[in-house]
Amino acid sequence: MAGADPQTPPMLEVRGLDVHYGAIQALHDLSLSVKKGQIVTLIGCNGAGKTTTLRAISGIVRPSGGGVFYEGASITAAPPYRLVRMGIAHSPEGRGIFSNLSVSENLDLGAYARSDHDEIARDRERSLTLFPRVRERLKQNAGTLSGGEQQMLAIARALMARPRLLLLDEPSLGLAPQIVQTIFKIIREINERGTTILLVEQNAHMALKVAHYAYVLEVGRIAMADEAAVLEKSDAVRKAYLGVG
Amino acid sequence: MDQFLQTFKDGIAIGSLYALIALGYTMVYGILKFINFAHSDVVVLGAWLSLVIARQAEAAMGWGAVGTASGAAPWWFGGVVLVAAMLLCGVLGFAIERLAYKPLRKAPRLNVLITAIGVSLLLQNSGQLPAFFGTKPKSIPPLVPDTVLFSIGQVQFRVLDFAVVGTALLFMIGLDWLVFRTKVGRAMRAVSHSPTNAGLMGIPVDRVISFTFVLGSMLAATGGFLWALKYTQVKQPADTSWTLLGLKAFVAAVVGGIGNIRGAMLGGLTIGMLEQFGSAYLRSSLADVYVFGLLILVLLFRPGGILGSAAVDKV
Ligand SMILES: Nc1ncnc2c1ncn2[C@@H]1O[C@H](COP(=O)(O)OP(=O)(O)OP(=O)(O)O)[C@@H](O)[C@H]1O
Ligand SMILES: [Mg+2]
Question: What is the CATH number of domain B2-301?
Answer without folding.
Answer: 1.10.3470
